[in-house]
Amino acid sequence: MNRTSRETQEHLFALAGNPNCGKTTLFNAITGARQHVGNYPGITVEKKEGLYALNGRQIRLVDLPGTYSLTAYSLEELVARDFLVHERPEVVINIVDASNLDRNLYLTLQLLELGVPVVVALNMIDVAEGRGVRINAEELSKRLGVPVVPTVARRGEGKDAVIQAAVDVARSGIRWQPLRISYGPDVDPVLVDMEKIIESSGFLTDLYPARWTALKYLEEDEQVKKKGRERNPEVSDRLEAMAAKVTEHIQKTLDSYPEAIIADHRYGFIAALLKDGVLEQRFKGNRLHLSDQIDRVLTNRFFGPIVMVAVLYGVYEITFTYSELPVQWFEAAFAALGRWAEGILPEGPLRSLVVSGIIDGVGGVMGFVPLIFFMFLAIAFLEDTGYLARAAYMLDRVFRIFGLHGNSFMAFIISGGIAGGCAVPGVMATRTLRTSRERLATLLTAPFMNCGAKVPVLAMLIAAFFTENRAQMLFLLTLLAWIFALVLAKVIRLTILRGPSSPFLLELPPYRIPTFKGLMIHTWERIWQYVRKAGTIIVAISILLWALMTYPGLAPEEKNRFEAARRSVIEALSPDDRAVLETPGSGTASVLEARRRLQAIAREEATAALRASFAGRIGTALEKVTRWCGFDWRTNVALVGGFAAKEVIISTLGTAYSLGELDGDDSTTLSQRLRQDPHWNPLVAFAAMVFIMLYSPCFVTVTCIIKESGSWKWGVFSMAFNTTVAFLAATAVYQGGRLLGLG
Ligand code: GDP
Ligand code: MG
């Protein structure tokens, strides 16, 4: 590394830009005759250096070879990039041709991704203006987060301002800070994993930012891979294997390559950067790309939001209409399985474990697979076409009001912003956010969204109490989730995470027609994630909860009391009646009456046993508090179980109610059982839905929040904060509803 420049109080700046952007012209205008032309060591690429004095300070200026990119495609690109990482100039003056802005900004993005401090010289504005292009340099500077100085190099205009801006940046002592761009749902998660490996092993971190190295592995950059293999072959192999896996996946799902996807997202980022007031084209030709033409409608100020609401609502209609029948099949299949198990297993704890613990638990979760399938299919379609990115773009303005960022939208959507999804990848998606305050605020509020695990619970309650307005109800709950998330984000950004918003960071990838195969693979991956979770954690927890609800059981004297009550009913019968008591469908009026009373005793006993169980005790203890929002101990037990995973709420309620109702026809769905239960009514159900929507994220999400925020305190905070908010909101609903005479 070259340190002499700093010791002698010199500044070292570099000039970078595309070929023919006016780099040499600007270099000459600044340095005049004080230049030195040589070669970069060992190669034929010309190296020009010049000196410039400003207020007694020497500035050494290096004219880098002209490049379109910082990949390793050409010698020029390699030279430029090696100079940046090895010589570490304090500032790179990036000359961009204003008459060809989007193409030139491609290099700018890569400089920013590398992290080097940048000053943009917006050159050839005379040419741009002649073509009717006007650029708002101030807004562009705000969005890029770096100074942007308009210049006309040929007339020497703006050269002093450029140098001054660069000196200011150098003096401000700014450090290398890499820009993070989102590369979409296929690439982002892998980048994050690769970054972790790179950071933890210090792999090439003296040269490149971790994300940059990861990107180079995905882009198949031979130079970086070679360096990596020399330094640490083991880590390099791991990264190459990960890159190969993504490549295969992207080929299968998108029929494309990581390099192309990465370039698409960079151009998408630039397209968004230049929209709305940055670039104005006064006499438009008819050379708009198809994507631009579509965008003129879909992101139009007036039509855009209307289309967006219509699209989101369409997702609900499709999900509910198409999934209705398969859901019924699933439910019937598991009910039949339960009856079959009941028939072949002897009465006792094993039968109870299999029927109430396992089959009910898994059935409750699996019954909603069709619903989630259609939901994910719709989301995958929106994602793969590029429409979701447009929605993020349109919402950026709104998100800023709440102290968030357009990219927070992605985290919210992935977490379940269009009901469905999962807060775990949602929390991870916050990595594309630039400042830690916006990132934390998103991290903490994204779990309010209705994830794929909450949806079945909500859908079950909706099916029980709001049959007439299913789609509208879920739409309302989604709206509420957004309102809570945004308002609470604002509260968090005004209190514990106070501070300014980050600069612009959005992208508009070109529209694509998704392939059927790609959609299916994306949907299948998510369904599989859900089912795998159901197959492992959920079953384990379902069994644990079954044990909690079964043991320690009733005390002997209590048992005897029920036994005595049963005996007295039987003894009151004549011997003839007693003989037919066990034969269903026969007997006199007194036999029917005895049967009814025996069933009532059995129900009472089961309920008493559940209440005496460990879970019952916890739920009962919580009743003192949850009385305020209308929940009894059974709901409480289910909510406690829901911390393990939200789907467990259904299986727990299912288990709780089937244990409490031994004579129940097993094909009766949980919805019907709740509807028949006197404790439940639409008001209680609504309060419960609000609570379920808002309370503590499941423990997997909490673990991720801890990992992503780097502190267990945020995990604890999120559990306590969300549960408090949920309790207050549910209480407000319940008490408010009672005041209005609704419950
Ligand atoms: P380089 O390849 O980036 O070094 O570009 P040059 O400095 O060689 O410039 C390429 C051409 O653009 C030359 O003919 C310059 O005179 C011209 N040029 C440079 N800057 C400007 C400018 O601001 N306005 C106009 N109209 N022409 C410019
Ligand atoms: Mg030149």
Number of strands: 9
Poorly predicted regions are 1-7, 659-668
Q: What is the average per-residue confidence, as pLDDT, rounded to a whole number?
A: 84
Shape: elongated
Alpha-carbon distance between the two ends: 74 Å
Ions, cofactors and other ligands present here are: guanosine-5'-diphosphate, magnesium ion
Radius of gyration: 32 Å
What does this protein look like?
With 743 residues, the chain is α/β, with parallel strands linked by helices. The protein folds into three domains: 10-171, Rossmann fold (3-Layer(aba) Sandwich), CATH 3.40.50.300; 188-281; 288-552 and 613-743, no CATH class. 65% of the residues lie in helices and 7% in strands. The chain contains 33 helices and nine strands. The protein has a seven-stranded mixed β-sheet, sandwiched between helices. A two-stranded antiparallel sheet has the order 7-9. β3 (46-54) and β4 (57-63) form a beta hairpin. α8 (184-200) crosses α9 (210-218), α23 packs across α29 and α27 (614-626) crosses α28. The model is unreliable at 1-7 and 659-668 (pLDDT under 50). The site of guanosine-5'-diphosphate (GDP) has 16 residues, from α2 and α5.
Looking at this protein, list some descriptive labels.
single chain; 743 residues; alpha/beta; Rossmann fold; two-stranded antiparallel sheet; 33 helices; binds guanosine-5'-diphosphate; binds magnesium ion
Write the layout of secondary structure elements.
Layout: H1 4-7, E1 10-17, H2 23-31, E2 35-39, E3 46-54, E4 57-63, H3 75-87, E5 91-97, H4 101-114, E6 118-123, H5 125-130, E7 133-135, H6 137-144, E8 148-150, H7 159-171, H8 184-200, H9 210-218, H10 222-231, H11 233-254, H12 258-273, E9 279-281, H13 290-298, H14 303-344, H15 349-366, H16 369-385, H17 387-401, H18 408-417, H19 423-429, H20 436-445, H21 454-465, H22 470-494, H23 516-550, H24 556-571, H25 575-580, H26 589-612, H27 614-626, H28 633-642, H29 648-659, H30 670-676, H31 682-694, H32 699-709, H33 712-739
Parallel strand pairs: 1-4, 1-5, 5-6, 6-8
Antiparallel strand pairs: 2-3, 3-4, 7-9
Helix pairs in contact: 4-12, 8-9, 8-11, 10-11, 14-15, 14-16, 14-22, 15-23, 15-29, 16-23, 18-19, 19-32, 20-22, 21-30, 21-31, 22-31, 23-29, 24-26, 27-28, 28-29, 31-33, 32-33
Guanosine-5'-diphosphate is lined by residues 17, 19-25, 66, 123-124, 126-127, 152-154.
